[in-house]
Every structure is written in structure tokens, then in C-alpha cells.
């Protein structure tokens, strides 16, 4: 390859490209001279240019696309931009914007990123995976696109989720981007709109189910283990009929977790711990009523129950404090339509189809919305909660914003300012009765990047439930009294990198104590993690 070809290739290699920041000496050395305008920019100038370009765009989707193109061109600059203002950029590279980006992924498709594994390639998954250029992969986020956020089956259009999520592992907790790999398993889609759309990019067939699907997953796990033995496999946005059994099958065999189930559970638990700092109550005094009994709802209920066990309850006593309500009403013992994973939360109670009636009967201290259905926490619901509780905990967690069970403004107004509120998608601050309330976002981003960094730093062999409880406590402990006074129960997103590194250090310490690490314990875990964390700068 000639010097010119090497330089040209370098300009198109997102991991090593510096664009206008290549120095004159580097340009001469690499054969780039003449391929760039003459000025040599600093990274700061390049970041300022991207900010300026973003300011000219009207819609968040356009900004998402600009950032996505940048990521394909120059990863260092991409991460420098995101990390320059995480609170602003996280909603652009992940929820809520990523929801719309996924829905239109095939229409706006530009550059490929990550690996696509179609079920038609069964028997050859290892070969396809081996085409990925990086050989030391530590973190994989994989989806089959069946339940993307609250938007349903988006088929291969769901690839925006693993891509966006892994960007956050890097931007929020410093997991080096070259160690990450986004993967989409294409087993078809049942979304007729996509099947009929000539621009759809995935397999044009209905979803494969049953034994064939399970064998495909097994082959995939084996291939990952063979090629990337130090990797952690994170399952993302699978429909709960698959998500729960897959996690059950692999959680004690390999280093793996499901963020929809366990990450969601941990961030909700962190929110509960934060809320209890406001109300001054104990976890074991709470009663929870969930709107939605899918993977998120049952995952949160289980982790809360396990956390209650650490505070002295038996697991049965703890689960008895968690009630779930789904599309067919309250989960109670006469129901015959329940899946195995819902049964631990099925209690003796009369059949009940009205959520307000369930509130009046169960008298929950907290309601958590994970139904994917907007507006279910209506005025009657919030008023009932406010009548029963001095400080009702109201968490509408369904994403994206259009699916939220209520808005922050509705929760504060209908509860007369009493609600302790957090939501899945962000809401702006609310002025009510002369007071300014700052709603927290129960965003899994407080948990999964930190978990990733802790697993990377320790080379942990497993990801356990107890690690998520440690993470939840670490997040809640970091909320300042000033934040709690404004109603904010999570650390501010503007300081998320620091918060994540602290959380990662707490999880890592636990991993070392439990003997799950594959590396020696460093003298100073915090310094060790900060030293490993990716920094967006040209080497
Ligand atoms: P899921 O499909 O597994 O479960 C949805 C549940 O809601 C089911 O039990 C269903 O019966 C129930 N439901 C549907 N319509 C209902 C209705 N009208 N009334 C009552 N219940 C109804 O989905 P999931 O994985 O559990 O996710 C649920 C939601 O939680 C999604 O919107 C997702 O984006 C959100 N979520 C948020 C976070 C977060 O913010 N941290 C994390 C994970 C998931």
C-alpha cells in the first residue's frame, strides 16, 4: 500500500482519524498532506465546530444523525462532544431520540456499525462474528429487536439500541470504545409495516420461535465465548417471553446480564433508596404496586424483594409487599393466564380490574409504571396515592416520553406537590405553588455503564443480583441534600461520569470481596478504575 493510500485509509478509520487535528508533521508522515485544508485544529476547536453545526439543526433526530455520522468518521471527536455535556447529549444519542431513530433506521440508514447475525446463517455465527476487526472485545450489547423501548417489534431497526447503549458505556463510565461490540440478531420481524416496506433492511420473514430460536441463541453464546472469552454479554430489548428464560439459562454459566430486567431494577431501587432519604422511611415498610408485569416490572419487584431480604425480611415476606397489575388486572391467585416469572408476585386477593381500586385496597406507598401505555397514572390514581400517603412515590418509567404513564407536571399538580417523582424519560423542572421541582430520570444509565466499568476492571466471571443492589445503594448515596430538597433523587446527569466511576468502584470492591474477579485486587480500586477510564483525546 502506498503512503497516500495509508493516509487516505487513516482518514476513514473512525478509531484513529483526527480529521483537521492531524498535525503538519503527522500529515507529512502519513501521506495526508493535501487531503485536508491547511489549518490544524485543536480537539476543542473541533468540538466547538460540532456544537455550532448542531445549533443549526431544528430536530433531535437531525442532531442524532449528525452525531451518528460523526461517530462513523471520528470516534474521539464524537466522544469529546458527548462528554462535553452529557446531560444534553445523552437524550440525543439514547432515549428518547434513539426511539424515533430506530423506528426510521431503515429509511435513514447510512454507514454499517456492529454485527448483524441473521438466523439464516445458523451454523456459521462464529465465522460471521470473526469478521469484526477488533479481537479483544469486553462488552457486547445484543438485541433481537422484538421490544425496542416501549415501541414494540422493530426488527433489525433496533440496532440503534446496542449502538447507542455502548456509546453510553464509554461516555458515561469510560469503557474504551474499541472494547465494545453492538450486535443485532435477525430472527425476522412480525411488524407488518416493515415487512411491506421496500426499504426495510432485515430478513423479510416472521419471527422464528421455539426450539429453533433457542438453538440460535445457544450457538450465538457459544460463538461469543469462543471468540471473546473475557466479554460480558448484555441482553437488551428482547420480548419478555425470551428475555426472562435467556437470562435464567445463562446467568450462572457466563458473565451476562439483562439491562431491561436487572439494570432497570437497580435504577428503580436506587430511586427508592433516594426517595426513602426524603421520606425518612425504611425499605421494609414500603408496599409497591406496579402498573405492568413484564420483564421490567417483575425484575424491579424481584430486586426490591432481595434488597428487603438484606434488611431482615424473608423472601416470601418481601415479595408479599410487591403487587403487580397488568393488562388483565391485578396479579392474584385466581388468574390462569400468568407466566412462571410472574407467579412469585401473585397474591391472595379478590380479582381486581381497576388500578384505583387496587390502590385503595393495597394502599401502596409507591406506584411504578412499566406498562408501555401512556396516561395510566391519571388524576384519580395520583389523588388516591396522595390521600393514602404523606409523600407518595410515583415512578412512571415507560419509555419513550410519549409512553410515560404521566408527566412530571401532572404528578406534582395532582398530588399538590407531595409526589416523590422520577420517570423513565426526562421531564423539565416544574414550578408549582412557588416551588421549583426537579424531576429525576430513572435512567438505567446510572447503572449499566458503571456495571460495565466494574466488570472490565475486575474481569468478573459473573454479574450477580447482589452487584445490582450494591450499585443502587452507591447511586443513592451520592445524591446531595440540596438535590433531595428540590425533589431530585438521582445524581445530576451533568456529573454522571464522576458518579459512574464512584459507583463502578463500589461494585468492583464487592466483586473482589466475593472472589469473582479474574485479576489481582489493586491497592486503590478507585484510582485503578479512573486510570482505566477512556478519555476522549488524540493519543
Ligand atoms: P413488557 O412488554 O415486558 O411488559 C409490559 C407490561 O405492561 C405487561 O405486563 C403488560 O400486560 C402490561 N400492560 C400493557 N398494557 C397495559 C395496560 N393498559 N394496563 C396495565 N398493564 C398493561 O415491557 P417491559 O420490558 O417490562 O418494559 C415496560 C416499559 O418499561 C417500557 O416502556 C420500557 O421502555 C420501560 N422501561 C423503562 C426503563 C427505565 O426507564 N429505566 C427501563 C426498562 C424498561
TrEMBL record:
Ranges in a coiled coil: none
Keyword Iron (UniProt): no
Amino acids binding (S)-malate: 147, 399, 443
GO molecular function, one term: malate dehydrogenase (decarboxylating) (NADP+) activity
Cofactor note: Divalent metal cations. Prefers magnesium or manganese.
Family annotation (Pfam families): malic, Malic_M
Keywords carried by this UniProt record: Metal-binding, Oxidoreductase
Cofactor(s), names only, from the UniProt record: Mn(2+); Mg(2+)
Residues involved in a divalent metal cation binding: 236-237, 260
GO annotation (BP), single: malate metabolic process
Active site residues according to the UniProt entry: 94 (proton donor), 165 (proton acceptor)
InterPro entries in the cross-refs: Aminoacid_DH-like_N_sf, Malic_N_dom, Malic_N_dom_sf, Malic_NAD-bd, Malic_OxRdtase, NAD(P)-bd_dom_sf
Superkingdom: Bacteria
Family assignment from sequence similarity: Belongs to the malic enzymes family.
Stated name of the protein: NAD-dependent malic enzyme
Species whose genome carries this gene: Fluviibacter phosphoraccumulans
Amino acid at each position: 500500500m502506498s503512503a497516500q493510500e495509508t493516509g487516505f485509509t487513516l482518514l476513514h478509520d473512525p478509531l484513529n482519524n483526527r480529521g483537521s487535528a492531524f498535525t503538519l508533521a503527522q500529515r507529512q508522515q502519513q501521506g495526508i498532506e493535501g487531503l485536508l485544508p491547511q489549518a490544524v485544529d485543536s480537539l476543542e476547536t473541533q468540538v466547538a465546530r460540532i456544537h455550532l453545526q448542531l445549533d443549526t439543526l431544528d430536530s433531535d433526530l437531525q442532531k442524532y444523525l449528525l452525531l451518528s455520522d460523526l461517530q462513523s468518521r471520528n470516534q474521539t471527536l464524537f466522544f469529546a462532544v458527548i462528554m462535553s455535556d452529557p446531560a444534553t447529549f445523552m437524550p440525543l444519542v439514547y432515549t428518547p431520540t434513539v426511539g424515533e431513530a430506530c423506528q426510521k433506521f431503515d429509511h435513514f440508514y447510512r454507514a454499517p456499525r456492529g454485527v448483524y447475525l441473521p438466523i439464516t446463517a445458523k451454523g456459521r455465527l462464529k465465522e460471521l462474528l470473526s469478521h469484526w476487526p477488533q479481537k479483544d472485545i469486553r462488552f457486547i450489547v445484543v438485541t433481537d429487536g422484538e421490544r425496542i423501548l416501549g415501541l414494540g417489534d422493530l426488527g433489525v431497526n433496533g440496532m440503534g439500541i446496542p449502538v447507542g447503549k455502548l456509546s453510553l458505556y464509554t461516555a458515561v463510565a469510560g469503557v474504551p470504545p474499541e472494547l465494545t461490540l453492538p450486535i443485532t440478531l435477525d430472527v425476522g420481524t412480525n411488524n407488518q409495516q416493515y415487512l411491506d416496506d421496500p426499504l426495510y433492511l432485515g430478513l423479510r420473514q416472521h419471527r422464528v420461535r421455539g426450539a429453533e430460536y433457542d438453538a440460535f441463541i445457544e450457538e450465538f453464546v457459544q460463538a461469543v465465548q469462543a471468540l471473546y472469552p473475557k466479554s460480558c454479554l448484555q441482553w437488551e430489548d428482547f420480548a419478555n417471553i425470551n428475555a426472562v428464560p435467556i437470562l435464567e439459562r445463562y446467568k450462572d454459566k457466563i458473565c451476562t446480564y439483562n439491562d431491561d430486567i436487572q439494570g432497570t431494577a437497580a435504577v428503580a431501587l436506587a430511586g427508592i433508596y433516594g426517595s426513602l432519604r426524603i421520606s425518612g422511611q425504611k425499605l421494609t415498610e414500603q408496599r409497591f404496586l406496579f402498573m405492568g408485569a413484564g420483564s421490567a416490572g417483575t425484575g424491579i419487584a424481584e430486586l426490591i424483594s432481595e434488597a428487603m431480604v438484606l434488611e431482615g425480611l424473608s423472601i416470601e415476606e418481601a415479595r408479599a409487599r410487591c403487587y403487580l397489575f397488568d393488562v388483565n388486572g391485578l396479579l392474584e391467585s385466581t388468574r390462569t393466564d400468568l407466566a412462571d416469572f410472574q407467579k412469585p408476585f401473585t397474591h391472595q386477593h379478590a380479582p381486581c380490574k381497576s388500578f384505583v381500586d387496587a390502590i385503595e385496597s393495597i394502599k401502596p406507598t409507591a406506584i411504578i409504571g412499566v406498562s408501555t401505555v401512556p396516561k395510566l397514572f391519571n388524576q384519580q390514581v395520583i389523588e388516591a396515592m396522595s390521600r393514602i400517603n404523606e409523600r407518595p412515590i410515583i415512578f412512571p418509567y415507560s419509555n419513550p416520553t410519549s409512553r410515560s404513564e404521566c408527566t412530571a407536571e401532572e404528578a406534582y399538580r395532582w398530588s399538590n406537590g407531595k409526589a416523590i417523582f422520577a420517570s423513565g424519560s426526562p421531564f423539565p423542572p416544574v414550578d408549582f405553588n412557588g416551588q421549583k421541582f426537579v424531576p429525576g430520570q430513572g435512567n438505567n444509565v446510572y447503572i449499566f455503564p458503571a456495571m460495565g466499568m466494574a466488570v472490565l476492571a475486575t474481569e468478573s466471571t459473573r454479574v450477580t443480583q447482589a452487584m445490582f443492589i450494591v450499585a443502587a445503594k452507591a447511586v443513592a448515596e451520592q445524591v446531595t441534600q440540596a438535590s433531595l430538597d428540590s425533589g431530585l433523587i438521582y445524581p445530576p446527569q451533568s456529573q454522571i461520569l464522576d458518579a459512574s466511576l464512584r459507583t463502578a468502584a463500589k461494585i468492583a470492591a464487592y466483586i473482589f470481596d466475593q472472589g469473582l474477579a479474574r485479576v489481582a485486587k489493586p491497592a486503590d480500586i478507585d484510582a485503578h478504575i479512573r486510570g482505566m477510564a477512556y478519555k476522549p483525546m488524540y493519543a
